[in-house]
Sequence to fold (148 residues):
Amino acid sequence: MSDEIAAAFDGIDPADVPESVDRAALERMRTVAMVLDESVEIPVIEYRIGVDPLLSMLPGVGDALSAGISLYIVVEAARLGVSFTTLLGMLARVSVDAVGGSIPVVGPMFDAVFKANKWNVEAALDDLFPHTNDEDDVDREAVEIPVE
Fold:
């Protein structure tokens, strides 16, 4: 399942993480996000949903439970040293997921589409290990613009 979890997310493979970073914590974050957002594939439409939309069908309790589990990813990211602004964004996504999922009838569909946990793990990985695109590696020269 570890390969499936790593393949489900863009970012860094836990094997490529420096020794100073808790690899097990990254794997736990990815596993929780996978279970909540993408653990079951709907065969006819080839779309993945997780436990989050199923929990959303339990009025009140399901969304509170889902939000509590989602906060684990935020706490683990904070422990790993993710920046404050990224943590705020992660908390905002968990809040939107909880509020949107609590809407009667539409909530489970919202939770099936809004994959806050997956996005939170990707945000944490991007903050911890910023990508360098090939475009960014191109030597750039300063352009001087005369002002009269």
Observations:
- The chain has a mean pLDDT of 82.
- The chain is about 60% helix and 5% strand.
- The helical segments are 2-8, 23-38, 51-56, 61-80, 84-101, 107-113, 116-128.
